Amino acid sequence: MVAFMPATTPPRRTLPSAQAAPVRARLVNTEDVSRKPSPTHIRVDGVTHSYGEHPVLTDLTMIIDKKDRLGLIGENGVGKSTLLRIMSGAEDPNIGRVVRPVRTGMLWQEVQFLPSDTVNDLIEGGLTGLRAVEAELDDAAHALSLDATLNDALASRQANARYARALAAAEAADVWNVEPRRDELIAGLGISGIPLDRRLDEVSGGQRSRFALAALLLGRPLALLLDEPTNHLDDNATDFLRKQLINWRGPVVFASHDRAFLDEVATVLVDIDPTRDGLVRFSGTYTAYLTEKAAERKRWEHQFRSEQAELQRLEYTLSVTAREVSNDFGRKDNDKVGFDFKAGNVERAVARRVRNAEAHYLDLEENQVWAPPSVLSFGGIPKGAQLLEGDEPFMELTTARVADRLAIDSFVIKPNSRLLITGPNGAGKSTLLSVLAGAIKLDKATGGTLHKRKGLRVAMLEQDVHFAEPHLTARTIYELTVGEKRAEALPLSSFGLLVARDIDRPIGGLSIGQQRRLALALIIAKPPHVFLLDEPSNHLSLTLASELEDALGTYPGAVVVASHDRWLRERWTGSRMALSHGAVVSHTEPEMVPEAVVETDADVDAVATDESAESAAQS
Predict the structure, then answer these.
(1) Residue 609 in this model has a pLDDT that exceeds 90
(2) What's the longest Cα–Cα distance across the chain?
(3) CA 481 → CA 496, 519, 520, 526, distances in Å?
(4) Positive or negative, the Cα torsion across 210, 215, 221, 225?
(5) What distance in Å separates the CA atoms of residue 106 and residue 228, rounded to the nearest whole number?
(6) H/E element, 240
(7) Residue 417 Cα distances to 38, 182, 413, 555, 557, angstroms
């Protein structure tokens, strides 16, 4: 079922600069928990918002019921993150209002923290709302014993009602089991081995995100808002989160690139991409919605073409046909009276036709559907890449060791390699890619080597993209990186990664997804011989992620991808290598991978455990 809500115009802006000064973002708002019953739903009423001259959301209205798990979908930059921040209260809309439960929590795409913050500080930040519930319960209990309460019937009833609300809130938040739940959440998200006193700038971005997610769930807010919650989760952690959300008591809203997660968790989808009838609310799976969206796009295009053709016909009728009909009725000899009578009839008929056509024209012109916006479609890998001749391997790793993060004895990348690296969080996937990219050096003590062919160019699309000068425009960064001549021969707009209006905006004013699109353009503008992609679908829209995956199949060089994305893994047709604890667990070629079998991170760990047990038995 597809439902349409009040129209939105194409939003243009989401996240403020990712390079802003360090701040600590609130995970859960702390509105008054005592004075009145909390709403159990989220209502967005007539919200309009813009950043400077860039409109984002226009007259947006929706209701998220306490039983809804709403998946927000749409292209990068259409306003998903902005909407979540407005829903959470982190930003106020220019126009409109939002009603939300008194304790509404939000997971940000990138954790905002102070340099001195520890893991425990982040967790305590998630408990702010819960601590307010505890304090209110104490205050309400104290108020019951006051003389003013005991000696006044009205005050006594009010105090008892307040205590009942506070007790119900405390029970719902499970305030008496914080530590056991904290340990369960940290273990479920795969970060139990990290000390709580570790500084946040000493752990990876993925680990920070998982600690922030644990802190948010621990605080038991009445409503959950999640911005790309599975970006840094492996299969086990994703399944853990899925179960948490399905059992959550309260509205859940999440923006996600994870197609399988949307299918499994969302009870309703809202697409904030522009449509002819406004905001689309779809009760069904993401997979089913793809089919419906494609069909709706065709209907929209057909209606637009039909209405434009009718407007042209009416214009012709008004400007040409009426005049021709009037002039064609000539006077015959000796027929002055008859001519005057017939001419009058013709004039009246023509006048009626003109009035009818004019009324129809004005009505259609006022109510016509607007032209479907051009679809941002990835232009693929540009041609003309300089290939290296011969079958000699591009790269060879021997005795590769990086502290306790990587231990690979032998690894080869051939000119036509298509390799997918899988494994749970902490398996060493990103470390291996960073070694291949030259960002991490091998331990010298082990004598490990990385051999590369002469003239080989290697580039990596990293998980988290940051630009040193956020005030520069996307066009300027592109020209400085690839050179003026190549930028002129291969314009940034030719890739279909950024729309024209965003190319000349400061990169710090673009969304995280748009920034990663630019990073992708900087690489493929001069395709490297070895293209490394670390979680390529993270932060990218669902459409672009699919288009990029398709384009990699014909890439003019070697491709190495590290990914948790189940949708990508199910469609992968190249080689696969599974890592666990920094070591290779399995390495299979395409013909060795059963078509119906998709290896999970749990399978990788199981194989590693079995091999360890077998080795121990032999020794």
Answers:
(1) no
(2) 125
(3) 18, 10, 12, 10
(4) negative
(5) 11
(6) helix 235-246
(7) 57, 43, 6, 10, 8
